[in-house]
């Protein structure tokens, strides 16, 4: 699963890569994000009401109500930051968003931890002409509505879809990795049918990826 990633790509480069018009950039003065955690705000690319691509900042993780098993008291909500590829058409939490609200999640690297006390953090990126070529995770978005400590709450949120780990990720995290989409598949992901989109949920080629940063306590990815 993915609980930490980075997006250090400037807004103008994101607009170009994801074919977003300047007037559809809703990010404002976007800063580089070397460490994005669940419940943090980060950019996504989605279709607006007119069908045009827009860049907006949403919170990472679909929210659902969480209650104490002992007392029934309302706790901080669950944040579902990952959705398994084999659940997106079956689970009630994911199905409607997968069918109607898919998005691209811009990134420059993602992190998986290995071991404990202390953990070693490994940052994965794509190979390319630069140190951290920008790419996009397969994502979904929704307006999460849930019961919070102060009553009914809602938050626009996104989640990242995961699939089986490829050969470079497997030694670090043997089960899952984020789905990375190729630029030629962005249109099908945003506009295609659910069946077409489902066909894109595959591990990225391991020979096109590198581990670009590793170390104890390396919880942010800063290009060197």
TrEMBL record:
It comes from the Bacteria. Its EC number is 3.4.-.-. The keyword Glycoprotein does not apply. The keyword DNA-binding applies. One of its GO terms (biological process) is protein-DNA covalent cross-linking repair. GO terms for molecular function: lyase activity; peptidase activity; single-stranded DNA binding. Keywords: Covalent protein-DNA linkage, DNA damage, DNA-binding, Hydrolase, Lyase, Protease. SUPFAM superfamilies: BB1717-like. It holds the Pfam family SRAP. Belongs to the SOS response-associated peptidase family. PANTHER family: ABASIC SITE PROCESSING PROTEIN HMCES (PTHR13604:SF0), DC12-RELATED (PTHR13604). This is Abasic site processing protein. It comes from Ruegeria atlantica.
């Amino acid at each position: 699963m993915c609980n930490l990633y980075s997006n250090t790509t400037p807004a103008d480069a994101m607009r170009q890569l994801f074919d977003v018009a300047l007037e559809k950039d809703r990010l404002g003065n976007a800063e580089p994000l070397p460490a994005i955690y669940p419940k943090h705000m980060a950019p996504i690319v989605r279709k607006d009401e007119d069908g045009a691509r827009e860049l907006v900042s949403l919170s990472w993780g679909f929210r659902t109500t969480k209650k104490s098993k002992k007392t029934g008291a309302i706790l901080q909500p669950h944040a579902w930051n990952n959705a398994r590829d084999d659940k997106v058409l079956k689970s009630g939490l994911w199905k409607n968003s997968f069918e109607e609200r898919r998005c691209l999640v811009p990134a420059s690297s993602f992190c998986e931890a290995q071991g404990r006390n202390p953990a070693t953090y490994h940052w994965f990126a794509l190979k390319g002409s630069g140190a951290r070529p920008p790419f996009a995770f397969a994502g979904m978005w929704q307006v999460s509505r849930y019961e919070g400590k102060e009553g009914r709450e809602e938050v626009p949120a996104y989640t990242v879809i995961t699939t089986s780990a490829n050969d470079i990720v497997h030694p670090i995290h043997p089960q899952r990795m984020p789905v990375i989409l190729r630029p030629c598949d962005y249109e099908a992901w945003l506009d295609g049918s659910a069946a077409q989109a489902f066909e894109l949920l595959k591990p990225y080629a391991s020979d096109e990826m590198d581990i670009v940063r590793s170390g104890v306590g390396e919880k942010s990815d800063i290009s060197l």
